[in-house]
């Protein structure tokens, strides 16, 4: 998604209030952005805390600051500065973390982002954006640029090779109808689930929805009525996210349902479990170890529906 992100950011470059700060990352991907921004493209070095504070200072005097790094270096290392300098002051600093979930694979836990949006959504005013497809990035960047509040954009790698059938961007989207349960997924893993099931007969495939915007005071945008209608009729609800269970989307969604008085029947939650074996491998390997790969998710959904 980095290429789509770079293209979208280049479109903003004419605004002279716009600054882009990187923690010595983005090589072989963001050079077009660096070219159009010139001195407004700032390599802050391996000094993420300082980078966020500088961005907060820019925002405080009317600048439009974007901060880019590998996801854990973007939210974990400078968390104090995000909390104190950005969010407590409601400053419109846009944080961009590349490589959500296990995307950095064998580089290990220091490079994985398994609790990022759960941690950040404890902070005031911040909204998290999690694109599922490359095509989501450009409308997300425009939405973030137009919102005067802190934001976190979690970039990953689309699991869908052909995006021609992707519905227009929205905080909530139905990817397909189905009679074998209801899946609600966060991020790129939705594309893999869709690819694996969309050729099945209607009664034998799950309905799939993808959610792309999250906020700490509740779901950023309320789910559409159609989702609630499908939930009431579904034999099982599956919630899927490449994030730990604690503080994740599933907890937030179920909490929202409970507060609204809606009953939920059978539920399964596929999520990151950290490192059960204590070993590291590719993103695909980590997903398989956690039961977050597509075959395991579909098997879990079918087994729960049958109980």
What labels describe this entry?
307 residues, alpha/beta, Rossmann fold, 2 domains, seven-stranded mixed beta sheet, five-stranded mixed beta sheet, globular
Can you describe this structure?
β1, α2 (31-37) and β2 (41-43) form a beta-alpha-beta unit. 45% of the residues are buried. α1 runs parallel beside α2 (31-37), α1 (2-10) packs parallel to α7 and α3 runs parallel beside α5. This protein folds into two domains: 2-155, Thiamin diphosphate (ThDP)-binding fold, Pyr/PP domains (Rossmann fold, 3-Layer(aba) Sandwich); 172-306, Rossmann fold. 36% of the residues lie in helices and 20% in strands. With 307 residues, the chain is α/β, with parallel strands linked by helices. The strands form two sheets. Strands 2-1-3-4-6-5-10 form a seven-stranded mixed sheet, with helices on both faces.
Q: Output the helix-strand order.
A: HEHEHEHHEHEHEEEHEEHEHEHH
**Proper CATH architecture of the largest domain:** 3-Layer(aba) Sandwich
Relevant CATH superfamily of the largest domain: Thiamin diphosphate (ThDP)-binding fold, Pyr/PP domains
| Low-confidence sequence ranges | none
What profile does the largest beta sheet have?
A: 7 strands, mixed
Distance between the termini: 39 Å
- Counted up, domains total 2
Order of strands, widest sheet: 2-1-3-4-6-5-10
Mean pLDDT: 94
Q: Count of DSSP helices?
A: 12
Structural class: alpha/beta
Question: Which secondary structure elements does this structure contain, and how are they paired or packed?
Answer:
Layout lengths: L1 H9 L7 E5 L8 H7 L3 E3 L4 H13 L3 E7 H5 L3 H9 L6 E5 L17 H5 L6 E3 L4 H12 L5 E5 L16 E5 L5 E5 L2 H9 L9 E5 L1 E3 L9 H9 L3 E8 L4 H11 L7 E6 L10 H8 L3 H13 L1
Parallel strand pairs: 1-2, 1-3, 3-4, 4-6, 5-6, 8-9, 8-11, 11-12
Antiparallel strand pairs: 5-10, 7-9
């Amino acid at each position: 998604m980095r290429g789509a992100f770079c293209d979208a950011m280049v479109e903003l470059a004419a605004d002279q209030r716009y600054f882009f700060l990187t923690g010595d990352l983005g090589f072989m991907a963001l050079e077009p952005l660096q070219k159009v921004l010139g001195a407004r493209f700032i390599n802050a070095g391996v000094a993420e805390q300082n980078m966020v504070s500088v961005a907060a200072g820019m925002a405080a005097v009317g600048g439009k600051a974007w901060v880019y790094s590998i996801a854990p270096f973007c939210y974990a290392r400078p968390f104090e500065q995000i909390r104190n300098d950005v969010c407590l002051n409601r400053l419109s600093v846009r944080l961009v973390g590349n490589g959500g979930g296990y995307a950095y694979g064998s580089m290990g836990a220091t490079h994985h982002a398994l609790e990022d949006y759960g941690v950040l959504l404890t902070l005031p005013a911040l909204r998290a954006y999690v694109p599922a497809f490359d095509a989501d990035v450009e409308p997300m960047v425009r939405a973030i640029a137009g919102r005067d509040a802190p934001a976190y954009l979690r970039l990953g790698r689309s699991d869908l090779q052909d995006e021609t059938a992707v519905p227009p961007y929205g905080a909530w989207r139905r990817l397909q109808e189905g009679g074998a349960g209801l899946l609600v997924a966060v991020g790129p893993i939705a594309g893999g689930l869709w690819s694996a099931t969309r050729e099945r007969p209607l009664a034998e495939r799950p309905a799939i929805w993808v959610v792309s915007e999250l906020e700490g005071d509740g779901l950023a945008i309320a789910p559409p009525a159609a989702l609630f209608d499908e939930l009431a009729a579904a034999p099982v609800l599956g919630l899927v996210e490449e994030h730990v269970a604690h503080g994740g989307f599933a907890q937030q969604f179920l909490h929202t349902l409970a507060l609204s008085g809606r009953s939920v029947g059978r539920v399964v939650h596929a999520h990151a479990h950290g490192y059960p074996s204590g070993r590291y491998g590719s993103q695909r390997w980590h997903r398989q170890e956690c039961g977050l790969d597509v075959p395991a998710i579909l098997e879990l959904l079918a087994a729960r529906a049958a109980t």
